Amino acid sequence: MNKEVLIIGGGIIGLSTAYYLNKEGHRVTIVDRSDLDSGASYINAGYLCPSHIVPLSAPGVVKKGLKWMFNPSSPLFIKPRLDLDFLRWAWSFQASCKSAHVAAAAPVIRDISLLSQALYNEIRQHEGFDSHYEKKGLLMLCQTPEMLEEELKAAALAKRIGLDVEALDIKALKKVVPTTQVNAIGATYYPCDAHSTPHEFMQEMKSNLTKAGVQLLCNEKVVDFQYVGKRIRSVVTDKRHIKADAFVLSAGAWTGQLAAKAGLRLLVQAGKGYRINAKNSSGISIPAILAEAKVAITPMNGFTAISGTMEISGLNQKIHRQRIHAMADAARRYYPELVLSAADKAGATVGLRSLSFDGLPYIGTSSTYQNLIIAAGHAMMGWTMGPATGKLVSEIISERKTSLDIRPFDPNRKP
Ligand SMILES: Cc1cc2nc3c(=O)[nH]c(=O)nc-3n(C[C@H](O)[C@H](O)[C@H](O)COP(=O)(O)OP(=O)(O)OC[C@H]3O[C@@H](n4cnc5c(N)ncnc54)[C@H](O)[C@@H]3O)c2cc1C
Q1: Mean pLDDT over each residue of the chain, to the nearest integer
Q2: Which of 20, 149, 266, 296 is in Cβ range 3.0-4.6 Å of 394 for a Cys bridge?
Q3: Is the dihedral of CA 385, 371, 351, 64 positive or negative?
Q4: Which is it for strands 194-196 and 133-134: parallel, antiparallel or unpaired?
């Protein structure tokens, strides 16, 4: 049966969901409180990276967070706060930082990421989609033996679960990037990864959806829900009430707040990330993560993007200049020719990732209301997992067998 579906939040997760629901014949509306031209889905590093199989909640992360707590230019910053939601999330997060969790999560992350990459390729075959996309792999560049050892361990895990990965010494690295000056003692290289220029794909998605009859309501904020029994009847926005048969909550970092209004305690925190666009040609043609600095370098269409930091400091989009300088300095340490102008730095932007407590996304039906589907919590992997998440949500709403086992993504799971 075709349904009336309302999607709350039009980032990559909301748009991908609309794409598949529309294809299934449902009538779809997206409501978003923004202009639909900014935020994480527009300013991310553009990696479609099945290589990132280790979830954020991994052994050692809490220790690093504590070490860096008072360093304003560190790549990971956790602001301690007497806020019950934050404390609940932090407790559950640290409880998930275990090797057994990483071992169980890695194949799950691999499968949803590979499905998503295949779906990106499928979408891109259609008319109206020809934005920047390249499959040149991803380098993890290391400057110290300790980091190289850590990356080699991660590569061994990736290899064990069937991903294509190579260890590169300096000579082999030179062969992969013959014309770029790089300061590194070695690297691991994941040929399975692709990269893109996010705002271009987002634009194409919006045009395609509008042409296909999906309604996009911008600058309209959802503030509450209205219920009848175990079903949501309508959402209340700052302009009106909107009725539907099914509701998808894909509001990124804001999803926890809205889920609470629907009686679901979803452990979500915002993880702020920054991006600087270097307008001068850098000569970099292969994406790379600067492993010690946790900074991502992406050759996008017409500029090089430098992205990074994970600042867990609540739902705010405040820009801390010292982090921008730290990212720019890191980029220069690895790529001496990567020049960032004052204007590039001044134009830096931020986006909020939505962080679940265990590093796996929440995809599934809420236990509180039968017609509320959650699609959030993708952390550093939402760009990669967008189309697969959209397809899974559309299969749930269409009451069809899902392309993957969605039990690991259950939004009602407990720490
Ligand atoms: C610097 C940075 C680099 C990244 N790099 C990568 C990468 O290379 N690869 C990768 O896979 N992932 C990456 N990510 C993560 C990825 O960008 C996110 O996981 C993804 O964009 C999340 O998409 P989303 O649709 O869930 O959320 P968002 O894009 O945040 O969209 C949520 C939408 O909900 C709307 N909304 C919120 N509240 C309401 C409300 N009350 N009413 C109506 N609308 C509302 C917001 O306005 C917003 O438009 C990166 C993130 C950052 C910040």
Answers
A1: 95
A2: 20
A3: negative
A4: antiparallel
275 Cβ below 6 A of ligand 1: yes
Q: Which of 353, 355, 393 to mutate to test the pocket of ligand 1 (most atoms within 8 A of CB)?
A: 353
For 287-310, write each residue's pLDDT tens digit.
999 999 999 999 999 999 999 999
Q: Are 393 and 17 in contact (CB under 8 A)?
A: yes
Check residue 281 and give its pLDDT: 78
C-alpha span between 15 and 101 (Å, rounded): 30
Q: How far apart are CA 265 and CA 85, in angstroms?
A: 9
pLDDT confidence tier of residue 340, bands split at 50, 70 and 90: very high
pTM of the full structure:
0.97
Q: Which residue has the tokens 């009430």?
A: 241
CA distance 373 to 227: 15
Mutate to test the pocket of ligand 1, among 37, 257, 378, 392 (most ligand atoms within 8 A of CB): 378
What type of residue sits at position 368? T
Residue 287 and residue 18: Cα distance in Å, rounded? Answer: 30
pLDDT at 92 over 80: yes
Q: Give CA separation, 338 vs 105, 141, 292, in Å.
A: 35, 15, 17
Task: Determine the distance separating the centroid of ligand 1 and the alpha carbon of 254, expressed in angstroms.
Answer: 10
Report, in this order, helix, strand and coil percent for the chain, each rounded to 5.
Answer: 35, 25, 40
Which tokens in the block code for residue 239?
């302009």
Give residue 254's pLDDT. Answer: 98
Alpha carbon distance 239, 232 (integer Å)? 18
156 CA from centroid of ligand 1 (Å)? 30
Q: Give, for ligand 1, the residue of 33, 52, 294, 350 to mutate: max count of ligand atoms closer than 8 Å to Cβ.
A: 33
**Token reading at 400:** 């069809």
Question: What pLDDT, in 10s, does the model give residues 27-81?
Answer: 999 999 999 999 999 999 999 999 999 999 888 888 887 777 777 778 888 888 8
Give the span between the Cα atoms of 86 and 38, in whole angstroms: 25
Q: What domains lie within the chain, and their CATH numbers?
A: 4-409 (3.50.50.60)
